[in-house]
Amino acid sequence: xxxxxxxxxxxxxxxxxxxxxxxxxxxxxxxxxxxxxxxxxxxxxxxxxxxxxxxxxxxxxxxxxxxxxxxxxxxxxxxxxxxxxxxxxxxxxxxxxxxxxxxxxxxxxxxxxxxxxxxxxxxxxxxxxxxxxxxxxxxxxxxxxxxxxxxxxxxxxxxxxxxxxxxxxxxxxxxxxxxxxxxxxxxxxxxxxxxxxxxxxxxxxxxxxxxxxxxxxxxxxxxxxxxxxxxxxxxxxxxxxxxxxxxxxxxxxxxxxxxxxxxxxxxxxxxxxxxxxxxxxxxxxxxxxxxxxxxxxxxxxxxxxxxxxxxxxxxxxxxxxxxxxxxxxxxxxx
Length: 334
Fold this sequence. Notes:
The protein is built from seven helices and no strands.
């Protein structure tokens, strides 16, 4: 397989090439002709590497041409649009060409990646076989049977040896889990048997205890009934005795209440008479004090009136009229 030549343009020819309409076409066609003339050889690594190298050289030509064009644009500011348009067309053309040249390699690499992924997934089927703790032994047996039926042959290609190892390791893990689960289930069965026997013993002991307790309750109830009957007889006798004593006591208490009532009545009448006499005496004493007080006030008022030159009789008359309230707006303060 030939190699693609990296295109170069001399700077002195750049202006005429980049400013001419489709001026790069001779170079682009030369790159395209060389790229398309190469026959991809996908059967060998050298051939695949050559494809990658040719695509890379197409991109090198793109970079070289673009660099010349960019230098020209930097130097000739008056023609940037023409140069940039040609650069853009050139880049797009060569990018598309490079992608086209590399496409067989990309397709091969993708197909190879898909093939390897599919084989790795088949191997992962063995490497990922793990049973959760507590899975029933029958389920583990079914999984072991499924794994054993999965045939490992040349269809695993370069992963055949790894698939054999992972399958063997998977079966070892599953069989180990199966042995542990069978032992665990046997232990659980023995524990269940022991629990059942213990429950039966407890039930029998409970029934016997209930029977004994019922017999004991019946005996106690009979004793309590007899005791209650004896106590009831004693209580009735005591109640009759207490009733007689209560009647006698109530009789005596009634007689005593009658005596006390008569005595209380006599004492109350005496107290009321004494209280009445005391109250009347206090009231009489109060009236006497009040009378003396008023007399003194009246006499003081009379003495004051007499100093005005009126007679004693006239003064007494005035004081009496004031005391009785017969003179408007005049009063004596006692």
